[in-house]
Design brief:
The protein is of the alpha/beta class. It folds into 2 domains: 124 residues, HUPs (Rossmann fold, 3-Layer(aba) Sandwich); 111 residues, Rossmann fold (3-Layer(aba) Sandwich), CATH 3.40.50. 40% of the residues lie in helices and 25% in strands. It contains 9 helices and 14 strands. Helix 4 runs parallel beside helix 5. About 5% of the residues have low confidence.
Length: 281
């Protein structure tokens, strides 16, 4: 790629591990990225201090999934469960990292989950974690940890979902901003895997969209990529998530610094789109 472009340098990837399907998806994506970028992988398991505090309360009980029997929370049992979860997380990390010949490390931290992850993320160039939980209304939502990471960290964030293949076409939302050009560089690099890059051109008018398309085509002319373009207008903002779902995309790359997209549109995409999202900052 053109070395004069403002490339996002990723040398250390921090991945949050908690044993959930979303966390496993984040781990798999992080390992793949680390292998592609020759980056170091840092796995972090946080022993949730709030769970340990809850286990000390005399009225706290848990419902056993296999028996539906209510049992009083026990501090020693809770600590054992967390140790077992951390052990399993480390084993999964080691297995995947070794398969992809990726350098890795693992650490266990204790404290409020979001705060500990944000502190650890200061040492990394990218934070990868599972993105969603399911609300009663069945709408896709960010989990509290993912939401905190999106709102508070200044580093790029990769939000993963299970059962979504990263080998599908990369989708970039491009609006002509400096941040969008940085996101373009990242998206083009990641798209080398399958040779396809879909670009949604967010423009005020058709001529501006045509100018964006020409500029992108010129920038990527030496890349072996099949480029697909679609012109969007601000009037499409209400249906943007639906349009993206129809695109058959895998990972969406989105500028999260100086984007010209309305803040409400970005919020909707990050909160409700049940697909992997890479926020470039």
């Amino acid at each position: 790629m053109n070395e004069k472009r403002n490339r996002l340098i990723i040398q250390r990837i921090l991945v949050a591990l908690d044993g959930s399907p979303h966390s496993q998806s984040a781990l798999e994506a992080a390992v793949n990225l680390a292998g592609l970028l020759n980056a170091e992988l840092i796995g972090v398991f946080v022993e949730d201090i709030n769970l340990l505090r809850l286990a000390q309360l005399p009225f706290a009980h848990e419902i056993q999934a296999h028996t539906a029997v209510s049992e009083k929370l026990n501090m020693d049992r809770m600590k054992r469960q967390l140790r077992l979860q951390a052990q399993q997380a480390e084993e999964n990390l080691a297995q995947l990292a070794q398969q992809h010949t990726v350098s890795y490390s693992f650490r266990i931290m204790r404290g409020p989950v979001s705060a500990e992850l944000l502190a650890a993320a200061l040492e990394a160039d990218l934070l990868a974690l599972g993105r969603i939980s399911r609300s009663v209304s069945r709408k896709t939502r960010l989990g509290s940890t993912a939401r905190t990471a999106v709102n508070q960290t200044t580093h790029p964030v990769l939000l993963m979902s299970p059962n979504v293949a990263l080998d599908r076409p990369i989708l970039l939302v491009y609006d002509g901003s400096a941040g969008a050009n940085k996101a373009l560089d990242v998206a083009a690099y990641l798209a080398q895997g399958n040779g396809r890059l879909q670009v949604l051109l967010w423009a005020d008018n058709k001529q501006q969209a045509t100018d964006y398309q020409h500029a992108i085509t010129q920038t990527l002319q030496t890349e072996n990529l099949k480029l697909e373009f679609r012109y969007l207008t601000p009037a499409d903002s209400a249906n943007l998530a639906y349009i993206m779902k129809l695109s058959g995309m895998g990972l969406m790359v989105l500028n999260d610094t100086d984007s010209r997209l309305p803040a409400a549109t970005i919020h909707t995409l990050v909160e409700e789109l049940d697909h992997p999202v890479l926020l470039v900052r």
